[in-house]
Amino acid sequence: MNMNMKKKTILTLLTAILLLIAGKANAAEPQLKTMKFGSEERSYWLYLPDNLQEGAPLVIMLHGYGGKAENYRPEMRAVADREGFALCIPQGEKDTKGKTGWIVGYPPQKDIKRDDARFIIALKKKLQKEYSLSKKNAFLTGMSNGGEMCYLMAFLHPDAFSAYAPIAGLTMQWIYKDYRPKKAVPLMEVHGTADRTSFWEGDPGNTGGWGEYISVPAAVGKWVSEARCTHEVTEELPLLKEDSHKVILHRYAGCDEAWKGGPEIQVRLYEVVGGKHSWALGDMDTCSAVWEFFSLYLR
Questions:
Q1: Which end of the chain has fewer CB atoms surrounding its CB within 10 Å, N or C?
Q2: pTM of the predicted protein model
């Protein structure tokens, strides 16, 4: 190899290394942010994929009871990269037991007046304005206590988000009894039938200590009724792995329109047969399923 060829080879290698370093430096990472809400300083993690377009959708994702927002469900970041939406994971505050979460009426939250619903709406509006995100395409998902918050938001503020996706979430009995939904909303739920934290069959006697709550089929059925769906279509999803639980998708259709001239409302229940308290990632591609559902309601 002559001297010129050696120089060209070295230059090519250096260029490749510099491009690799630049790529790593420019790669998107979640950023810890804070915002003032009333007298509180609230925090959240924000993930903006590289080359995010102006007017991109926003997904807000809520962690479970005792959880933290940092590095929560990184699988959803991969979906955000692929589909081009902003992802925000707010941090829940502590209750009287010192557990972080969202105020939905658990016994340790009884005397706490914090309005997490208003905080989530304020956070959504702040992000939409600061990062030029779509004002129409915002969606809410969350697991367990975060799922309960999704249900509460759907009851109290159905127009705040275009669709809701609680995962292993519950409808507390007080919400079901005290509030009538202001309108129907697109909603999907993923829930294991062997979940012994958030019982599939409900807990009217508060044996689990979370307070009374209704069964998962009744919780989803409430939104089926509100949307005036006319029929149910069921299908068994292909097994993700040999040892995965069977997943039965209950799809409720023939419903009212989500908005004038828009697609009809769908309500979905992914029944994970024998599944426990989780995102069911070993049984289905839950994060992709959530976005596929949300994407039906993009405007």
A1: N
A2: 0.91
